Amino acid sequence: MPAARAPPVSLASATDWNPERKHRFKRRPRGMVGLPHPHPHVVVLALALLLIRATTAMTSPPAAAAAATDDDGDGSHALLALLQRVQAEAERVTPPDVFDPKRYVDLPLLTGDLRAAEAALPRPAASLAEMEAYLARFFGEAGSDLVAADPRDFHADPPGFLPRVESREARAWALEVHALWKLLARRVAPDVAAHPERHTLLPLPGAVVIPGARFREVYYWDTYWVIRGLLVSKMYDTAKEVTLNLVYLVEKYGFVLNGARSYYTNRSEPPLLSSMILDIYKATGDLDFVRRTFSSLLKEHRFWMSEVHNVVIMDKHGQVHNLCRYQAMWNKPRPESATIDVHLASKLTSAAAKEKLYHQVASTAESGCDFSSRWMRNSPDMTTLATTFIIPVDLNTFIFKMERDIAFFAKLIGENATSDKFLEASKARHIAIDSILWNSEMEQWLDYWIPTDGNSEGVYQWKPDSHNRNIFASNFIPLWLNAHNSEPVQFADEAKSVRVMRSLQRSGLLRAAGIATSLSNTSQQWDFPNGWPPVQHLIAEGLLNSGSEEAKKFAEDIATRWVRTNYVAYKSTDAMHEKYDVEICGKSGGGGEYSRQTGFGWSNGVVLSFLEEFGWPQDKEIGCS
Ligand SMILES: OC[C@H]1O[C@H](O[C@H]2O[C@H](CO)[C@@H](O)[C@H](O)[C@H]2O)[C@H](O)[C@@H](O)[C@@H]1O
């Protein structure tokens, strides 16, 4: 085996992360070696990881992390424990088609008397009526601890709105979608900060835009497309305020949480904070906003570079690379879906196997794509989820982008040395993505399976047969980097982008109403036949900016299919949907562990963004063709 060479980049002074030290963890006690000065919250999580690793094999999940992350020191863990018992009791008496486990962990306690609420919980409840009476006595409605916000920069028909949308029908609808920001804007009620022990909702300093329906709180990666839409709607102040909430979370927890609930503190979501800040800067030129948020981006980068997420892998030429994976710091049922997780784990016998499964389930939620055959060793068997053993194409795309954005911002604010270091880091990641994830035969980037044999502490040796050769829309997401390249050399040059486009066209993913998430119908929501707004947008924007006229036309074709299906579904249901069935124009998506959701933050953002980018001519049909 060729000698391992250290990656060419050192970010030590910029981020306190030194890739050379990364390799030392082979000989050092296990722990957060890649993160010498992390945020205190991350330290607690890391210590939890350390504890479990001292006693179990590396393939075991970080069991002690559970104990570390469900107590914020404000008493909200006691409430969450009670709410999970409420959830379990409610399941027994609620018809399955209306039972949503998340509702129960979102309930705010009406008074400070948790003990009284505990004592009065009917165990078992005799009926649904008895359970509902109990809930009404002790708890407010789920979502009642958020109050409507009235964004001051909202105008019903903002000047300069969608100048290229000529069709009256399309324009009238776009204005209705734009008006949905008012319905989705919220503020956390003052009681949440005053009495955190009564809420699983976390306090936030500014207004938020929620996805909608059961998703009553702000979500991390959803917010990127919310921001894109708010910028189209000229709501620049709201876009900044929403983003500053996520910055606040980084400052408080060391990373952006999956969502702003105490039960989401054990994981993040696809990291797009730097992209939000970049797009706001491009729209407003507000350099103070960049200055204000910059150090939080460095902090977030440290989180993703820590041992929890970083994987070291040696390519076939002996070159060593750092890439990232998803990994939650949790090995218990997800509180928001505990009944579902417990049921799934009941197929396994040992407590250790259950913990490992819970760890994989939560780690999959960190991917934002929960759930999908993509993360299963043996699809569609959910007990074979193995997300922490996958190097995902899209995650590394987002982190490459983060590094490029940080380099750009650092230059803007005069931190040239930091800029150079992050530029180098992004180049190293570019090389890593090309070496480890690019598949020249299929002309796609492919997720990479790392071994589950307990070697995750060391440097993995790249193997050609470890690519996941199944077709997923995520295989094409690196194209998005075309949209954001400030250098003459594009991430995927024009010729390569065209080859990737042809591969996408041959893949079978493009359907009547958009790009399917995968080709496999598992009944999971991130599989066929669902298409998701962020995925359409990432791929279309990448194609649009590839430099190829043909790819640009293809991007417009994808956008047209997507806009039409959103429009037709809206006309028939009076709502924007979370996801769509790409087989049938105008049909919302289904599957997964919860019912169809409407609102919907990222759907609105993607439609507005497509309409801004491509316009809609007078004579273009907007119904299904
Ligand atoms: O309650 C189940 C899961 O719900 C969320 O995931 C889905 O909705 C999110 C909000 O729109 C979205 O960010 C994610 O991509 C969806 O899969 C939540 O994020 C999960 O953590 C949660 O377990």
Automatic annotation (TrEMBL):
<keyword id="KW-0326">Glycosidase</keyword>
<dbReference type="InterPro" id="IPR012341">
    <property type="entry name" value="6hp_glycosidase-like_sf"/>
</dbReference>
<dbReference type="InterPro" id="IPR008928">
    <property type="entry name" value="6-hairpin_glycosidase_sf"/>
</dbReference>
<dbReference type="GO" id="GO:0004555">
    <property type="term" value="F:alpha,alpha-trehalase activity"/>
</dbReference>
<dbReference type="InterPro" id="IPR001661">
    <property type="entry name" value="Glyco_hydro_37"/>
</dbReference>
<dbReference type="InterPro" id="IPR018232">
    <property type="entry name" value="Glyco_hydro_37_CS"/>
</dbReference>
<dbReference type="GO" id="GO:0005993">
    <property type="term" value="P:trehalose catabolic process"/>
</dbReference>
<comment type="similarity">
    <text>Belongs to the glycosyl hydrolase 37 family.</text>
</comment>
<protein>
    <recommendedName>
        <fullName>Trehalase</fullName>
        <ecNumber>3.2.1.28</ecNumber>
    </recommendedName>
</protein>
<keyword id="KW-0378">Hydrolase</keyword>
<dbReference type="Pfam" id="PF01204">
    <property type="entry name" value="Trehalase"/>
</dbReference>
<feature type="region of interest" description="Disordered">
    <location>
        <begin position="1"/>
        <end position="22"/>
    </location>
</feature>
